[in-house]
Amino acid sequence: MKRPRVALIAHDKKKADLLLFVREHDDIFRKCELFATKTTGELLRDKIKLKITRMKSGPKGGDLQIGAMVVGDAIDFVLFLRDPLTAQPHEPDVSALMRVCDVHNVSLATNLATAEALVKEISVLQGNT
To answer: Which of 21, 29, 63, 99 is most buried when burial is the number of CB atoms within 10 A of its CB?
Structure first.
């Protein structure tokens, strides 16, 4: 079985939540091939010591790079903790990423509740029960 390919993204006010979530599920994420936007990836690498491929930052096209990977069938799951209460200057890119996940039937979690469901799905694919 191939390793699940997971993109991890978080808006600035959600980065701490993502770090805690990934740390809590460290055993699952260490068995995945991980991708992230720049700052999120640096935090995950530095704080949790994960091996992670980093794209550009979200506002500089990182969300679109992840979206292109979804279109190219190079991403299996996207965990994008969004901050719905803060306007994002790159909102069109965020919307485009969410749209390509829908079009290509890629699981997308945008909050901690759906992230839990996504991790359970990944765990089952890894053969954990």
So the answer is: 63
